[in-house]
Amino acid sequence: MKKILSLVLILVVSLSPARSQDTGPATTIPSDSNYKAHYAWNKACEDHIAAMKGKPCDIIFIGDSITAAWGQDPWGGSVRGKPVWEKYYANRNALNFGVGADTTQNVLWRFDNMDIKSFTPKVAVILIGTNNAKNTPADIAAGVKAVIAKTQQTFSGVKVILVSILPNKRANQTMMDTDAIIKDFADNQTIYYLDLVPLFTPVGDNWKGLGADHLHPDQSGYEIWASAMQPLLDKLLGGN
After folding, report:
1. What global pTM score does this model have?
2. What pairs with residue 19 in β-bridges?
3. Does residue 21 register a pLDDT over 70?
4. 197: closest CA among 228, 236, 219?
5. Is residue 94 packed enough to be buried (19+ CB in 10 Å), middle (13-18) or exposed (0-12)?
6. Structural domains in the chain?
7. Are 82 and 221 in contact (CB under 8 A)?
8. What average pLDDT does the segment 84-106 reach?
9. Can you name the residues that pair with 124 across neighbouring β-strands?
């Protein structure tokens, strides 16, 4: 009787759905939700990729609207980071792989479904997680870690500059708690952490370098980011 019960228990366990801890949090599971919700923004990213085909790609910027807005702001076409991009990266073979509203899981999906695998960037600049505001810091950090791993898997030998999630009015404490976790992902050999938070200092009810929405950098914010990253980028690219 005991043997029969044991066999039944084994069968039930083997047929049970995988537990959430076996698959990881939702932040680590690729999702096409943002592709469906904001196709035009994703199409703009695909256009950037197409325009880069056949050309050298030394730097890839990976992220959400904060990354996308190095070019044109996804909302209304107002210029934010484009003049700074032209100043620092126009001649450095850089690809903008940012899409507005992306979460970590959306970036993971784009890695699998956008045509970027032929590129061989030397450096990947990753800033992602601010749109995962409903997740816990631990789960957001797990998603960031998954994006780093996917980047390294896709681009052999790439060096990663992991940028701190910026302060924001929407979920600032959650993001600062996440930064406290992800900073330890750096090993200063393959992954480098760029902490911008001390440079985006509080100003009234906002932060230096952020726009009126208290979330996205304005042009001065992109200048802060680019100038802070320049020495590290020069080091990793060998001065190229």
Report:
1. 0.90
2. none
3. no
4. 228
5. buried
6. 21-237 (3.40.50.1110)
7. no
8. 97
9. 60, 160
